[in-house]
Amino acid sequence: MTAAKSWVDVPSDSDFSIDNIPFGVCSFPKYNGDASYVPAPCSNSLLAPSTPRCCTAIGKYAVDLHILADAGLLDNLPVAEESNGAMTEVVAINFHPRIVFSQSSLNDFMAHEKNIWIAVRNRLISLFLSESHGDISPDTRLQNNAPLQKQAFHPLVDTLYHLPAMIGDYTDFYSSREHATNVGIMFRGKDNALQPNWLHMPIGYHGRSSSVYPSVANGVMKGGSKEGTRDDDSDDETMSFVRRPCGQLQIDPLDPMKGSTYGPCKLMDFELEVAFFVGGATNHDDEGEHSGKPLTLSQAKDRIFGYVLMNDWSARDIQKWEYVPLGPFTSKNYATTISTWVVTPMALEPFRCETSAGKQGGTNRSGGGTELSEGVDVSGGGERVKDPTPLEYLRDPNYGSYDVSLTVSLQPKAVSQTTQICQSNLKHMYWSSVQQLVHHSVTGCPMKAGDLLGSGTISGKECHNFGSMLELSWKGTREVALDGGEIRKFLKDGDAVIMEGWCEKEGMGRVGFGQCSGRVLPAIPFPYETQMEETKQPQFKLHEDEYNKLKAELDVLEVRKVALTKEMSLIKVKMGEKEGMGRVGFGQCSGRVLPAIPFPYETQMEETKQPQFKLHEDEYNKLKAELDVLEVRKVALTKEMSLIKVKMAMEGHEQDGASLTN
């Protein structure tokens, strides 16, 4: 099949070909509007350009989905549904694109079923196609509407990027066998490189969603520099930044009994990862919404909304002192950066491939089975044994990964040269994203739309495939040479870390992720207040008029706060008594243990399901109607909050006025 062709200008090296169609959240503070576009008669007032909204990307443009939805281009979506054992095509119901795509996050879109995601993506492809491709025919309504194009298309270089979702929970895994083996050898030796449980299940820990930040530079070139947001140590650069953390450091690396001292992290590191967002309906237990139920492999595949690049910044010296006995804490909770365009599994499916492991179970190995490019054995040593076969709930007949090329480049602040220091690939994953999601839910953990799950550091067999400075410098024993004459073992202040990822094959356009980047700023040591005053720059102080505008918006929110306080009054009243004052109590924390639902889940669930817990169609529709009303109110509140959000986003992050043309 020949490559799909679009009437939109798409450079050959663009990450955002018509074969991609990622989803994200953007705003356009430089846009002044286009008077020639008249909103649809059924339209609510359109969002202000500075208000974040759902978008896609193609070529050099971010495309406003809320504008396309307002024009009716996303109505009457055909979706595939199963009926009497056969797949039929029907028009989507209970999907309201005008509401969904006017939100400041993708959560509402993510919460729909996979057939909706596919239908929206196919409609967008048809709107961008210049000629038929496969089963999709061109829809010329957008191509023939120049005023609508002016309203919906925005140059990527003038776009402000936001987190694609409100992240409820964030989990980071440790699923690259090569990486786990390398780290194990450094700290435990070859004979104990992999812990006994590692080949039996995906290992992970719960992270901190409040410190997941968007990469505002998305790999778009403008004037020779990466496009994004200016940091507070630079007048001309546009890039996200990460502050070097401070914390407790072990005084003597060889003797933990000597205790710790406080200070800036000396061994700051990056971790090359790919993360995915969960979508679909929450996996609630049939007995009620206060418990979850495990996901099967087939269910989990339909719950993965899409993928982003991720840099899980790490403070290695802080981590060494704190990680026993419960794992990393403050060494990991200060910053995680993700790329802002979410690439769907549908776009990645043509790039399916085997993992570097080939298969799970029955493979002869020596421990980790990895060898460095210099020929140094890092396999874990010991006798050659067979890998254990995963337990049945993790046994995937379609086990594999995606052929996604991944690179990491480093640029010191003082030089213009950028040095590529790592080339890796998503296929270097022993545990797949589907297996990670299945295992995460095995105990009944509810997985919600917008949850973020990271892969863990992705390292390959050769030295140049290592996805962290810890491995590249082999725990500080090797030097990493940079163009311009500098060397590194770990990150220095001013260093920019730039991650990129993409898929390519003949007959298809490039499918890329944009960029995940950030520059390291100096630490602010204790006492914080004094240090912050010394480092504060005049341009970051709010002027009185800006403050007053923010205060006016806050007053509006305070009215809402009063209303919520009244609703909470009944809870407060129920607190008990003491002589001279009311009783202060906690109510009750209780729960009843129900029998487990063993594998295979579907059979057991059918046997234990009671009729009274099945939702009838009319009850469902009533609840959906109420939700629709609430969504309308949510849109109104989002508009009220837009000024605050824009001011916060734009503080110290002004972009220049250049733009790209076709």
Please tag this protein with its features.
disordered C terminus; alpha+beta; 5-stranded antiparallel beta sheet; 33 strands; 7-stranded mixed beta sheet; 662 residues; single chain; 21% strand
Provide a short characterization of the protein structure.
By secondary structure, the chain is of the alpha+beta class.
The strand order across the widest sheet is 9-8-29-17-20-22-10
**Number of distinct helices:** 15
Label the overall shape: globular
Beta-strand percentage?
15-25%
User: What's the average pLDDT?
Assistant: 84
Strands, total number: 33
Helicity range = 10-25%
Global Rg: 26 Å
Query: Low-confidence parts, pLDDT < 50 over ≥5 residues?
Result: 219-236, 366-382, 537-543, 574-578, 608-615, 652-662
Give the N-terminus to C-terminus distance in angstroms.
Answer: 27 Å
Largest sheet: 7 strands, mixed
* Helix-strand makeup class: alpha+beta
Structural summary, described in words:
- With 662 residues, the chain is of the alpha+beta class.
- Helix content is 24%, strand content 21%.
- The protein has a 7-stranded mixed sheet with strand order 9-8-29-17-20-22-10, covered by helices on one side. A 5-stranded antiparallel sheet has the order 6-3-2-1-7.
- The radius of gyration is 26 Å and the shape is globular.
- Residues 219-236, 366-382, 537-543, 574-578, 608-615 and 652-662 have low confidence and may be disordered.
